[in-house]
Amino acid sequence: MAGPVQSIERAAAILRLLAGGPRRLGLGEVAASLGLAKGTAHGILRTLQHVDFVEQDTTTGKYQLGAALLHLGTSYLDVNELRSRSLNWADALAARSGEAVRLGTPLEGRVLVVHHVFRPDDSFQTLDVGTLLPLHASSLGKVLLAFGTATAEPDREPGLEAYTRHTLVDPERLARALTAVREAGWAAEIQEMSMGDAGIAAPIRGHGGLVVGAIGLSGPVERICDGQGRPRPALVSLLREAARAISRDLGAARW
Domain IclR-ED, which positions (predicted)? Predict the structure, then answer.
C-alpha cells in the first residue's frame, strides 16, 4: 500500500493553520509555523489559491481560507443539527445574560434566524425564527461575512441598504469593520438595523475550525451597551463562552 503523499499532508497542515485563528497569515508566518521553506510554502499556497481553497489579500499579501473551501466545510452540517446542538447552550446564555439569543446561518445573501430564545422577562417579544436579516447591518451577518461563511450579493441590490443613519453602507468602512471582527473574534451592531437596538454575535465553528454559523445577543442599546455606547464586556464574555461550547460540541477541537 502506498504511503501518504507529503504535498497533500503539507497542504492540509496549511489549511488547518489558516482555519485555526481569526486573522490572516503572511507567507513567512505560515512557513515558520509549519517548519517549511518559504519556497515550498509559497508553491502550496499558490496551488490552493488556484482552486479557491485559499485567498490572498491584495493589500497585505496575507492569506485566509477561500470561499470554495468554506462552502465545502459547511455542506456537511445540516441546519437542524446546528440548531439541536445549540439549544441547551442558547437557553443557558439567555438565562445568564438576561437578553434574547438568536442563532443564524447564511441563506441567499442574508442571515436566516434558525433559533430564538426570548429575553427572560415579561416584556412583549416577537419570535424571529425564519426571519432574514441583512448581512451588513446585523451582528450575526457581520460574523458570517468576516469569516467567509456568507458572501454579499452585489447584483441582488444596487447597493447596501441604509436601515438607519448608523448603518455601514460604504464598502471600505464595512471592510475595515469586518477586519476588526476577525481580529476581535466577535461582532457588534449598535443601532445599525433599528434605532434603539443593539446586538453582539460570535462565530460557531465546526470540524477544522471552519465557521458554520453565529450566535448572538440582542436587545435595547442601553442593556447591551455601557454608558459610552460600547458592548458590555460581561455580555461579550458570556456570548463567547457559549459560542466556544457549541463549537466544541460540533467538533472544533481548538474551542
Answer: 68-252
